[in-house]
Specification:
Elements: H1 6-19, E1 29-34, E2 37-42, E3 48-52, H2 55-68
Antiparallel strand pairs: 1-2, 2-3
Length: about 70
């Protein structure tokens, strides 16, 4: 049995959702891949980040852009 409480799990879920927020407007970010290249795009304000090798790298790019603001 897991030692995590419901509150712990909900906190982790909330943190993961915050990490996927647009650096420009805090809107929802979509990460898509095509032919081995990944990009993120804000659904609300159309901000974009392109040229990532993996989905994880695209998510890291969103996080870095948020930390620069």
């Amino acid at each position: 049995m897991s030692s995590h409480t419901v509150a712990d799990v909900l906190d982790r879920v909330a943190e993961r959702r915050r990490a996927k927020r647009c650096p420009a407007c805090a809107g929802v970010v979509s990460i898509r891949g095509f032919n081995g290249e990944y990009a993120w795009r804000c659904i609300d304000c159309e901000a974009v980040g392109i040229g990532y090798d993996t989905r994880a790298a695209a998510l890291d790019g969103v996080k870095r852009a948020r930390s620069r603001r």
